[in-house]
Amino acid sequence: MDFKNKTIVVLDVSQLPPPEPFLKIMDTLIKLKDNEVLKVLHRREPFPLYEELKKIGFNYYTKKINDQKFEIYIYKK
């Protein structure tokens, strides 16, 4: 993905127990500006999050680094 001209906001939820990652991500998205992309560092692929993102008008791109490290880029449609 190319996020030129976008500001990357990094959120590391990789050490948080459920459901904290989901809650922190949703709280951060409320504050996300149109020119920002949220980069989430997570220990697993958060499938429940993806469905919610679709419902509230966000796109996402997931990059698997290894079995316990994922980067999820979330941005407004």
Describe the structure.
The relative contact order is 0.25. Helix 1 links the parallel strand 1 and strand 2 (36-42). The protein has a single domain (7-76), classed as TusA-like domain (Translation Initiation Factor IF3, 2-Layer Sandwich). It has helices spanning 20-31, 47-55, and strands at 7-12, 36-42, 58-66, 69-76. The chain is globular, with a radius of gyration of 12 Å. It is α+β, with helices and mostly antiparallel strands and 77 residues long.
State the gist of this model:
This protein has 77 residues and is an alpha+beta fold.
Mean pLDDT: 96
Fourth-tier CATH superfamily name: TusA-like domain
- Order of strands, widest sheet: 1-2-4-3
Provide the gyration radius in Å: 12 Å
Order of helices and strands: EHEHEE
> What is the number of helices?
2
CATH topology: Translation Initiation Factor IF3
Could you give a short account of the major beta sheet?
Answer: 4 strands, mixed
Distance between the termini: 14 Å
Reported CATH architecture: 2-Layer Sandwich
Strand proportion: 35-45%
Q: Which spans of ≥5 residues are poorly predicted at pLDDT below 50?
A: none
Task: Report the count of strand segments.
Answer: 4
Structure keywords:
single chain; 77 residues; alpha+beta; Translation Initiation Factor IF3; four-stranded mixed β-sheet; 4 strands; 27% helix; globular
List strands and helices in order, with pairings.
Elements: E1 7-12, H1 20-31, E2 36-42, H2 47-55, E3 58-66, E4 69-76
Parallel strand pairs: 1-2
Antiparallel strand pairs: 2-4, 3-4
